[in-house]
Amino acid sequence: MKTDAAALAAEIPGLVVRPYAGEADLAEAVRVGNAEWAADGVSARASIEDQRAWWSHPSEQFDPARDVDILELEGRMVAIAERSWNDASDGVREYRSRCWVDPSVRRQGIGTAMLRRNESLARAMAATHDAERPRFHGFGTADTSVGAPLLAERSSYAPVRWFADMERSLLGELPEIPELPEGIEVRPMTVGDAPALWRADHEAFRDHWGGFDDSEASYRRWIESPEFQPDRMVVAWDGDEIAAGVLNAVYEEENRQLGLKRGWLDSVFTRRAWRKRGLARALIVRSLYLLRDDGLETAALGVDADNPTGAFGLYESAGFRVTERFTQWRKPMELDR
């Protein structure tokens, strides 16, 4: 199977495949990604600041200079391909593909060609890795997308996990704010608390499906992105230890494009030693009041439908309802010989 850049370009007349060129590519990359989300009915929009943070800090698992392809037709960016890998919590090493195609050039085989190239490059990379874990290809799709799930099925992927976005109104009556357990207090977050919060969040999610890149580069992406809004975070402390937290954020550019007044509970976590004490609910409700006081009208969060800590039921009890669904797909990797 011919999957190098020249062969991919030869399959589609006029297509040029090139590496990521840095700052000059950011605006067009954001345009392509947002256009795909809009066409697929996904209620998300990226900003140039989001993209800059994500592509500014190379790590072993994701290096934009190595792992991003820019595709152009007649000098115009029409698609983006990304590749990364991750040691997942279920014991596999997953080589992940992400692709965005401008809706104006869909159904020309670009998405299929990008996935084949991503798989080929992933196999080549996996062959250099000395890992005992089983290796899989993986990628995610929105259930509102028509083409991506069909591409997954045609390419022999199987669905392995389901996720959802949930929302609730901040207008009208909110739940009563629960008392915190004895010895626990909520304190204002500072930039200096960021490393401890990063470690606590990742520790809490180590037993959840999927796994994380916990490299220094990944940390830098987080604190340099619009997601990092310490003033909106609600964090519970037990003495000098972070026990739990809700990392809230408001994405002004997304709200502007979608005509919304929405805030996100981007991460809701409780470390294992402090679970089953009502901390998550107490911090979620405090977050709802915080976001409402900021002038927001809805609150949103994402959830793993099979979360082992019962998060789905907790969020429903706090008034959240599913608005969008997503599927994660995998297939076993056969290494090149």
Characterise this structure.
By secondary structure, the chain is of the alpha+beta class. The protein has helices at residues 5-11, 26-39, 48-55, 64-67, 110-126, 147-154, 194-204, 216-223, 252-258, 279-293, 311-317, and strands spanning 15-19, 68-73, 76-87, 93-101, 135-142, 158-169, 185-187, 234-238, 241-249, 262-270, 298-304, 321-332. A twelve-stranded mixed sheet has the order 1-2-3-4-5-12-6-11-10-9-8-7.
Mean pLDDT: 93
Spatial order of the strands forming the largest sheet: 1-2-3-4-5-12-6-11-10-9-8-7
Shape: globular
Radius of gyration: 21 Å
Distance between the termini: 14 Å
Helix content: 25-40%
Please give the largest β-sheet: 12 strands, mixed
- Poorly predicted regions are none
Structural class by sheet pairing and helices: alpha+beta
In N-to-C order, the SSE pattern is: HEHHHEEEHEHEEHHEEHEHEHE
Q: Give the oligomeric state.
A: single chain
* Strand percentage: 25-35%
| Number of DSSP E strands | 12
Q: In DSSP terms, counting alpha (H) and pi (I) runs of 4 or more, how many helices?
A: 11
Features of the shown structure:
single chain; 337 residues; alpha+beta; 12-stranded mixed beta sheet; 12 strands; 31% helix; globular
Q: What's the gist of this structure?
A:
It is built from eleven helices and twelve strands.
Secondary structure topology:
Blueprint: H1 5-11, E1 15-19, H2 26-39, H3 48-55, H4 64-67, E2 68-73, E3 76-87, E4 93-101, H5 110-126, E5 135-142, H6 147-154, E6 158-169, E7 185-187, H7 194-204, H8 216-223, E8 234-238, E9 241-249, H9 252-258, E10 262-270, H10 279-293, E11 298-304, H11 311-317, E12 321-332
Parallel strand pairs: 4-5, 10-11
Antiparallel strand pairs: 1-2, 2-3, 3-4, 5-12, 6-11, 6-12, 7-8, 8-9, 9-10
